[in-house]
Each structure stands twice: as structure tokens, then as C-alpha cells.
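Predicting holo structure, alpha-L-arabinofuranose bound.
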Amino acid sequence: MVKETMVEINPRRILSYRDFNIYGHFIEHFHRQIYGGIFQPESPFSDEQGFRTDVIDALKNIRTPILRWPGGCFVSNYHWEDGVGTRTPFFDKAWRVEEPNTFGTDEYIEFCRKIQAQPYICTNAGTGTAEEMSNWVEYCNLKNEGKYAKMRIENGNRDPFNVKYWSIGNENYGSWEIGAKEKTEWGRLVVESAKMMKRVDPKIELLAASISDLDWNINLLKEAGQFLDWISIHGYWDALHEVDEPSSYESCMVYTMKIEEQILKTKYILGSLGYLNKIKIAFDEWNLRGWHHPNVHRGDILADNIIEARDRNDLNATYTMADAIFNACFLNLCLKHSDIVGMANFAPIVNTRGAVFTHDEGILLRSTYFVFELYTKHMGDTVVDSWVSEADVFEVSHNGSTYQVPSLDMIATTNTGSNDLRISIVNRHPEQARTVRIKKNVSYGTGTIYSLISASKDGFNDISQLDCKIIQETVAAHESNDLVLEVQPHSVNVLVLH
Ligand code: AHR
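Done. C-alpha cells:
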């Protein structure tokens, strides 16, 4: 007997409005994300500018709204002028490889135009200065005034790039970061950088590297809160940076329950400091899986093959339905908290732990790609009230503790100006289907359910096998009865009712 869960929805009770930037992405100068990922002049799949056209098509298909670049740890030792005009290779001390700088600001802006995404530039607050950050804003956003706008024009771009989103720094709170900062010096650097950047272009929106920590944010917001529109937080839950031993499906379901605490803690900090209606959260690096790059942050250990070890990020069997379920639960939380979470950037989108994998014969779409396809195409822009009664749980032992994991994770949305209903129904259960009964006060004529499924919870997509795919079915919804449907184990479903 398939367990049944009752769902009630009140489409007339609006809870919040979603910012489409929660479906954003991140790309870094690391491993094969840029070179061999989005930019590969020698590939037969690339256009005359060297961009992979199959990647461009894939990112346009999921309506990528914004793309954060160039890092990540990389940016904390990156000097942007090396990547424009005459290119100057440098030894990237963040990732301990040579950066050719053949992909720089101009190429990045052109790539964003091709995928129809907003650019979002993260600046170097590690070895960089307030002046260098503001000069970058001059290069991108001034029409022709001064040295840097004229430099852009000389490099072939007469019109400004009009980059709206700028972050001051990346994870400067972390000892692993080049040029890490104490919380007191961080507030001072951010306010001085913000002053100069805003004086170049007052229309930009500013973010700053943050963490859900009260002390860090007290100093940051006391000093620079007046200039900030966002604070940036990051999350990777399956810590594979040093040892690449991916967690089990069941453990990953426990990780889906650990996402919300970071959002809530940051929201409460913003509230206690009086910034709730001024500053929003950008979860601008997130992924279930940490990137594998052993021994890079511990310079004392001269291990062999630390660069080759990064190729393990390319093992497609790593990215299963656990990743898809995690992504859906993450996006459901962004929708649930869309009053405060206005941006999220999947880290990264191409190669490493991303949703799109490039290879010599083309691209492969991993399980996580289809979650973005479901949400960007079928979920609505308005979050409405819904609640699950009689929700069942399953037990998971993880790291010596026992967790009660709810089988279903759901959220209901509509689209402004329409009567449709668009409901995400995620079944976390590793083996069992679930019956979902939607109370009859929701009256609709026809419906379609789009489901991301796989025969196994550990199913994955690779060049020679495609376990994870989207199917769709029509559902008949009658005004007089409850709408009853069944969702498969380990599946992500979006029900659209018209
Ligand atoms: O593992 C990748 C790194 O994770 C990113 O470069 C950084 O921003 C985060 O610490």
C-alpha cells in the first residue's frame, strides 16, 4: 500500500514573489570550467570567438538569468587588467596552475550576451585594492571618461558593458583564501571599496563576501551596510575537497535538511542589525558536492598529482538522483524564502560539479541540469500558501546520528496574472512511491505533471548511459474530487494545473 500524504493549497494567500535570479549560475577559472568548458577555440563545437555553441544552447535552454565570474578562490589573486588588451599569463596561486588570461572581461561579457544572462563580476579583495576594483567598474561601465573606459574602447568595445552586479571579495573570512581578512579590517576594506565603486557608477548593486556569522556581519554592516544591496553566502554540503568519497543517497537526503539553517541565521542577523528591508541574500555559490582539489589550501604538503586529482570531478557517476533531489530541495527553499533570498548561483554550471559536462563528442546533461529545466520552465513567480498534513518520514543514520527525513518536500506557486497552479513535489524516499492527495478546494480542469525520474536512486547520466530523464503525463483534475496522483521514489515533479 502506497502511503498517502494530504496537501492543502490556498492560491489566494500570496506569501512572496520569486526573483528569477535564484536560478543563476557561477563559473570559475578552475579545472575545465572556462578552458575546455565554455571557451575552447580548438573545438569543432565552438564558434568563431571560441565559445562552445552546444554549451551556449544548453544554458539558454534553462534560461540562465545571471552568471557570476571569475571566482571563487581564483579571484583573490586575479588582476583584471592582465585579462584585457595584451594578455599576460600569470601563475594562479589559488589553484597553482598557469592562467593564460585568453578569457578575460571582454570574452566574459560576450559570453553573457550569447547566453542572454546578466553579468555578475566578483572582484579581488584578496591581493586587490579598492582602486583596482573601481577601475574595473570604470572599464565596464563608463562611456568614455578616463583611462579605463578608453582602454575598453581601444580593445574594441565602444559601448559600456553596463555590469549591474558587483561583489567585493570572495570568502575573505576563510583562512584558505589568499588575502584573508580579519572581521574588523573587512568592514573597512568593503566600505572604502564600495565608496569608490559607487562613485564610478551609482547604479551598480553591491554584494560583499559574508557568512552566517554574527561577528563578521556586525563589523561588515556597521561599516558598509549603507552601501550594500546584498550579502553573499556559500554552501557545499558533501565535503569532497580533500577526499573524493561521495556520500550515499540517504546521507544526501540528510543534507537537504541542513540548507535552511544558513538562510534563517543570515536573515535573523540582517534583521537584528536593521537591514532586513535593505539587504538581500545572494546564495552565490551552492552545490551539494564540494569541488575536489586536494592539498591546495595546505601549501606545506607537497603531494604528488594534486592537479591531476581534480579530474575526479569529471566522474559522471558521482552525480545521481541525490544531486537532483538536493537541487530541487534547495530551490524550494529559495522559493520559500524568496522574501530575503533574491539570487542563487549553482557552483559551477559547466564541468567540475556542474550540470553540463563537456567532452570531445559534445556535451552531457547531468541529473541536476533537468531540475533547472523543470523549474525555469514550469514553476511560477508567486509563492502561495500550501501545507502538508500527515507527512511521513523515513529514518537515516548519518555520521553517528539518526535523522527523521520527511519523504515529501513541496511548494506551490502561481504566475502573476494567471489562474494556473504550479506545484513542486519532491519525493526524497529512496525506495517508495508516494500518493499525494490535493484537497478539492483547488478546482482545475486539466493538468500536466513533469517528472525527473531514474530507475535507481543512484542512477546517473554518462556518455554511454542516460538514466535520468524527464517524462510528462496528463492529470485529470475534477472540481468535485480531490486530485490524487502518485510520485515515484527519488523523483522531482512539477505539477501544472490550468
Ligand atoms: O571549491 C571551490 C571553492 O569553494 C571556490 O573557489 C570558493 O569560492 C569556495 O571556497
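Residues 28, 71-73, 170-171, 234, 241, 285, 290-291 surround alpha-L-arabinofuranose (CB under 6 Å).
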